[in-house]
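Dear colleague,

Following up on yesterday's call, I've attached the two folding results inline so they're easy to grep. Please treat them as preliminary; we haven't cross-checked anything against experimental data yet. The first protein's sequence and structure tokens come first.
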Amino acid sequence: MILELLDEAVSRGARQSKACAVIGLDPRTVQRWKRGAMEDQRRGPKRSPRNKLSEVERRRVLAVVNEPEHRDSPPSQIVPRLADREVYLASESTMYRILREEKQLAHRGRSRPRAHRRPEALVASAPGQTWSWDITYLKSPIRGIFYYLYLIMDVWSRKVVGWEVHEQELAELAAPLVEQTCRKAGLGPDEWKGGAAISTFEAEIFSEGEL
């Protein structure tokens, strides 16, 4: 398609070099394509680097990283630990590459691997089931200084159930607003998600987002 567009531009009077510059191609590349050489002819280095580990050195690295002392540690900890003993087998990147090639680059440690869990979805089918809150910047008469709008909204009806404006963004200001709004709506401690008592509703109990 690129060659067809180039031929069309040239047939209409454009210079091929200018057309190649517009699409970000070197004219020599276009010449190779027209000769049928569409594949990448690069083959990479033909010789191995001089500092490549031998098979014996590679097996030694695998043996060391799988020892009881090191099998629960990543290379980022193994290499400094060996360096303290004046022992150098390979760099961290080399150890990582060897473990990856040997299918051993898994979670190395006694603790459980980090789990990725999606937060529980909160769905509202009627008013008063789910509230969402946020803090929004409001411009002030002075440039660079803002007020902060603390706002609580019902997700279903989009009704603003509580709001306040402050000069600071603090959890100590948000918690009383949530508490007052819940009391105004007649919500008791048992109606809070998680059963948190309103009297002890602190910033640690809720986070910015849906309640």
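Below is the second protein, in the same order (sequence, then structure):
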Amino acid sequence: MVKETKHQIQTIGIIMDGNRRWAERQGLAKLAGHRRGAEKLREVLEWSRTAGVETLIVYAFSTENWRRAKTEVNFLFKLFRRFLKTEVDSLIANKTIFRCLGDRAALPTDLQSDIALMEARTSGLGPQTLAIAVSYGGRAEIVAAAKVFAKRYHGKLDTARESDFSQCLFTFGLPDPDLIIRTGGEERLSNFLPWQSVYSELYFTPTYWPALTHKEFLVILKEVADRDRRFGR
């Protein structure tokens, strides 16, 4: 656990960037980078657990990623299916709730079923939560939430609050991130949690996602936990 800091980092969002570039640097096929990236997620989930992080939200596949080659998209979904099947026992043993965030209707029907099964089997566990954003786009999430919000609060919009709108988002029930980490060297959020990240601390590292080490992870948590977070005060 990160100790002797100003703040405890309890919720982290991660933009897992750099898989393909890591693979190229290693002289491997790009798809091998995605495979190593999936393995890294397992490691980071454990690091988060031991550091006292209760909620981990990771950006796995964006709405823009649908534009990638079909072979790559299919491989990513194959990895996701494998993750759902191989990690369920570990998540249950570690009392970790699983959530999937995004436009599920766009996913293959068998994958939708696997996601629903994983969510059902881990429901009611905790305190840790792993939320994976798949077919997710922040702007699309806000538009979808606005439609739900308009129906739910039709005729009483004048009394509706920000917290009411938050309950219409894919992330309903999840805390906003204290910290968002992006690996891979890019310094932008790329449509990741635009509503939820307004007061998140941001940390950009040039380290590619598969190369992230436990030591660097702890350094990031310590550096951010020592920041002075005023929330406008």
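For the second protein, one point worth flagging: The domain at 11-222 is CATH 3.40.1180.10 (Undecaprenyl pyrophosphate synthetase).

Best wishes,
A.L.
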